[in-house]
């Protein structure tokens, strides 16, 4: 065989052609340098030392949050974890799946005569392998921190727990791929099937039919599900919608650019669903706009997915708050209290689009006008009322089990809700990353400027956690409520400062209206 024939055979091989394109793209001039990777590793090490290590030490030296004393007790927990992880992987795949490529690279591949299976298959296999290893590490780490599985003196549950973690790590990447390439109907069917299977396995694991082998059955079912899903998903690669994949890749590239430049909230804004329908419901028959609450409710219903998720988080958060503040413990916040506050925080941001409208109106005064005295009332009326009413309803239903509720518990719950709303206001008023945060902060541990950027990215969550922990350490409920009001006032002041406004200017404008 001559050299020309060998070269022609290599060029005709789809695998060689794909490898050549990826090799050339990987060695382009604007790729990340060794110094970039070194700085990323340095920041990761600093974050681990400052945040991760103390949290791990605190968790491991305290009582396990989810004690697992037998296989029967661990089976429902394993089923719940597996179902939640699979649902999360499906949902993640709908927005950012394993087939998302760089727009230019995808354009090059889609412009050839190659089938999508040839250039998407190898990339999907490699990314799914990485996702499986990451899922296994995450599940094992969560079990190490939250449960007492690794503290079992007889080591009877440890092999079964590792097997369940391996099964979850096998099915999670396949659900991730399934969520991206299959239709919404197929994803709903898979989610319903996972829920039914998890409920059946939980009941079977709690029964005496399997003895102590319930976890082995769960691991086997997860592995079999991964094999079935993987085969069906990879067979669907040849029918993938390349136009939709191109849009997803372009949005992912833009979001990645925002995230690397320190504006993670702008990256998340790209994945907000576009409002649809109910446009005429914002206006009365006589042509006038409807009231503030009606407008907020209609705008929330124009994004039904976000509204449904917000209702779930707010109801769950209200119930957890009711149970968490009832017995807060001596000088410490209960996990229910913290989890309830975080759930209310996430739900308060998804309850409507008026938070972003408020930020736009405050930062674009020449566009929306200078007389903004009614802006706060118009934009904040709906989220405040919706969050307060929903959390109060869920908390009231949950408090029936502890009737009559104590006055200090009600005060702590109200203070937590006010604190969460203040933290949400602070987060939503965020604009671009301040340049001052990029200045070096020289300490014995090195440059900690990256930590300031990290805290700025997640300032709302930081405020909620610090505020709840501070309220738990207050000697009385009125003192905790005053602390919550003080933190909320600071959040309002800092949020207005971010938009270029000041409380004095606000009062001046209100006096002129």
TrEMBL record:
Q: Which UniProt keywords apply?
A: Membrane, Transmembrane, Transmembrane helix
Ranges annotated as spanning the membrane? 37-59, 71-89, 128-146, 158-177, 189-209, 215-234, 307-325, 337-358, 379-403, 409-426, 478-496
Q: According to the lineage, what is the superkingdom?
A: Bacteria
Designated name of the protein: ABC transporter permease
Protein species of origin: Streptomyces huasconensis
Upper classification of the organism: Bacteria, Bacillati, Actinomycetota, Actinomycetes, Kitasatosporales
